[in-house]
Amino acid sequence: MEPLISIDKLRVIYNQGKPNETRSLEETNLQIFPREYVIIYGPSGCGKSTLLYSIAGLQKPTYGDVTINGKAFSKMTKKEMLELHQTGIGLIFQAFYLIPSLTVLDNVCLPQAFRGKRRSDREREGIQSLRRFNILEQSGKYPSQLSGGQKQRVAISRALINNPKIILADEPVGNLDSESAHNVLQILKDLNEVDQQTIILVTHNPEHLAYADRIIHMRDGRIIKEEVNREKRPIDVTRSEIIAQDTDPATQELNILMASFKSLLPQQVNMLLVPYKAKQLLSHLLSDMNEEQISIAETLIRETLFKNINVNELMERLDLSYDKGGGGWNRVRAKHFTDRIEGIMEQVALIKSHPQEASSTLSAYLINLFHLTLDQTNLLRFQSILSLRIDSKISRVEMKKRIDQAVSSGGLGLYSQTAEKMSREVEIIMLLKYS
Ligand code: ADP
Ligand code: MG
Predict the structure, then answer these.
(1) Given the DSSP bridges, would you call strands 5-14 and 22-32 parallel, antiparallel or unpaired?
(2) Which CATH number is 5-246 given?
(3) For ligand 1, is residue 44 a contact (CB within 6 Å)?
């Protein structure tokens, strides 16, 4: 995936060479990807608006360049720039910039008038847009007759009427009371999530940060820090392809690992995978332990998987008190836990040594673990689902679906919670089997 917006070595110096020279933006590099919701955050005067207007193509860089959709501003003709402003980018400001002598509807339709659309078409779309932002009743009024929140919604309707892919908003709720502010921020969030528009919002209000996928912190004309709430950027193309195939985080992580291991020998891969296996096995088996207990247990499982200690020693060590370097668990828990690990590892060994019988051993194991009763037909069905998964002919998600599905439509008809747990169990076994 290519970045939608790329900012390269951008600098903005106002009044360069004059006594009142101001360096508003020091050398700045930033990439923004399709569908991201990015907040530019920092105190007043730190250069947020300068950066945003540079992205909008409204502020000419002193040095550097901005590229949108693969086309650099420095290489755009006036016509291309105009096109970008009319249909590519929607701008929302703190001051609403509504034209006082035009009605709400005419204000909203204005960008389309510039594009030479027929009045009746314009109005139809204007009305749709006003309805969407819940402001249609005000369509015949003039801006001075509206509240701040209503004015901003009119400004948003206008910014979005040509359906731009990118929305740039400079402190859009700075002048609004907190309820209207929330309302407007929710509209932007929906535009990002539902309409998949890319949003860059400038704010100095820390309460807004939770809305964004990524937060760019600025200070004194520089980006000083970046914070990620939700990652929407690809690490590389391989990874984004993998993510498209499977949404389970554990499988994803494994696939990413695998993609980067392509050039290694199998033994090397196994060495590298052990810590990951230990983590997955542990998080599969435990949910309510504190961090220290988890980290000790994790180390011990790793030792077990590296075969430095056996399952019995694992149990002893988990049972041993903290101060003696053990896990500080009680005996019952340690026993139960190591029994589970032993069961899983036994399955792994069986599947590896007798791959032809994998689906029947695994089905017996799962039937016992989940206390299932299956008639002959369903048992065969179950085994065939498992064997498809073992041979990687279906994904984890598909396997779960088939286990979950009603018997009448070819599934096993188990509770979906059981199906989820069972598919995770199979996944863990498949992971541990890998070497
Ligand atoms: P922010 O949006 O974070 O408050 P700005 O980008 O508006 O910050 O401003 C960054 C710095 O650039 C400030 O010191 C401001 O005074 C200065 N500045 C902004 N616009 C101009 C301008 N047109 N001429 C001169 N200085 C400017
Ligand atoms: Mg500003």
Answers:
(1) antiparallel
(2) 3.40.50.300
(3) yes
